[in-house]
Amino acid sequence: MTDTNDPLVDAQALAEASANALWSRDRATQGLGMTIDRIAPGQALMSMPVRPDMLNGHDTCHGGFMFLLADSAFAFACNSYNRNTVASACHIDFLAPARLGDVLEAEAIERSRSGRTGVYDITVRVRGGKTVALFRDKSYRIEVQVIAVQGLSPAHREPAQERP
Amino acid sequence: MTDTNDPLVDAQALAEASANALWSRDRATQGLGMTIDRIAPGQALMSMPVRPDMLNGHDTCHGGFMFLLADSAFAFACNSYNRNTVASACHIDFLAPARLGDVLEAEAIERSRSGRTGVYDITVRVRGGKTVALFRDKSYRIEVQVIAVQGLSPAHREPAQERP
Amino acid sequence: MTDTNDPLVDAQALAEASANALWSRDRATQGLGMTIDRIAPGQALMSMPVRPDMLNGHDTCHGGFMFLLADSAFAFACNSYNRNTVASACHIDFLAPARLGDVLEAEAIERSRSGRTGVYDITVRVRGGKTVALFRDKSYRIEVQVIAVQGLSPAHREPAQERP
Amino acid sequence: MTDTNDPLVDAQALAEASANALWSRDRATQGLGMTIDRIAPGQALMSMPVRPDMLNGHDTCHGGFMFLLADSAFAFACNSYNRNTVASACHIDFLAPARLGDVLEAEAIERSRSGRTGVYDITVRVRGGKTVALFRDKSYRIEVQVIAVQGLSPAHREPAQERP
Which CATH class is domain B7-154? Predict the structure, then answer.
């Protein structure tokens, strides 16, 4: 956190602090070689190289690892407001295969956020190449903070809201 | 394969042989502790215990591991006709969390198959308990056999078809 | 409503009364020639003949009219507990075309219901023929009754619940 | 069509000619008060006022009419290359209700196109207001032209392709 009262600075600092807290707790993805390339309120860009142990019986990257990468980008984007948020639904279109040695990039962007739910688009590309999968995820906010923040500006103390 | 000409026996034997061939090649899922509990033409039941390394930052089973299990059940179901088949789309509703020690079961059932595409429903449950996720996957058949089969009955030599 | 205290009879009577109330208010679908063939708690079967004004530029039934029929079956199924419920998401796979003179049937079945949300599968078939579309709809309950019911058994006075 | 050989001009002229041909044949949507506000290769913007006969039992615009508008924008976008193309799947998130007198706008944008399939995002907004629904549609090209075009530049005589 910063000592300024600029809400934009605060929002970016909060997004980064939430990402750090979430990352440190996530045993499932730490071993997969992912990196966080960019984080912002409602947005995240992550990357992951395709390793030999990620190949399926067709010798292409198993869809489950594309899912894990996209899901992580989604999680960092929708938890960037320091409100614990989970996926309630996910729709995926697989467009092309990825191969050993490709570096996959997943970019998550918020399309809508209202009450407790949001919609995020996550585009998975081969770095420097084609789009391999499109994800659209629905988020649902549960009533717990990602990090306990003291001295947080009132704007972040959003009251619990019902879906409209 | 069997030496009988009963098409039902043949179809079941082919489903089992395809499952064995696919399993032996799938480096991505072999380490996850999955078992194949039942296989039949267009159907599969798989299970997997939730391990500590499958937990996410909310201390529940990461959705990516539910995806990996459901995707495997889907793959065994839609490859059971010995035609290489991949997922072209996937829709998921996450209903409830799964926890450490739960045994997850994924049951894949064919809802439709026509030309090169099919639709499969995969229900993921905690063994002896509640349903935790519903998957609906779309399959697309590529023109390669899972296993090279000699003496296969003509019914299995389905000609390449266009989608209607 | 009935004068019995049998909860199953009550549930069926409530489903029928909710369907009647919803139907009488729905200006959008009354002109489309739909009939309610069966109604039960969490289930509905509706039918609709394909008319000339439902054909699209490909001379097959416009997907929008399949949607209207499936959506009505969904609405009767998920409003059958006398709690106003709307669709929050819908996933459709179109499998085959329907033609002029076909009678379409949409059968809605509840797959999951918990807190304020539910998941329903709606299968659209040509009567006596093939399946033409598969819908999976997510419901969200808003806090209003479909019909004001006096003397309703306490089981129906479900308290407002949060999503888990 | 124009007498120039500029492929961009040709592509735009082809998009407009395809839209006109499709519109003239579409009995289902002509009576709904839609207008085509913009058309371009892979894109379309359409609008439609919410009328009293489009209201459902909750007194808001029936989702089926949002579907019809979004589906039309999708159809004009994906048929803009003069290849008959239909929806094979559709995923919808309903975000907010629309009311009597609102003018709905649906903007369709191509996200991916490869072989016979494509993915399109269609955003439905109240004019001058909020987003009410997000659609993601999958297209499948059938082997017929929307309009018979003479003297069409070779670039438009795309050979039939398989999905990769």
Answer: alpha beta
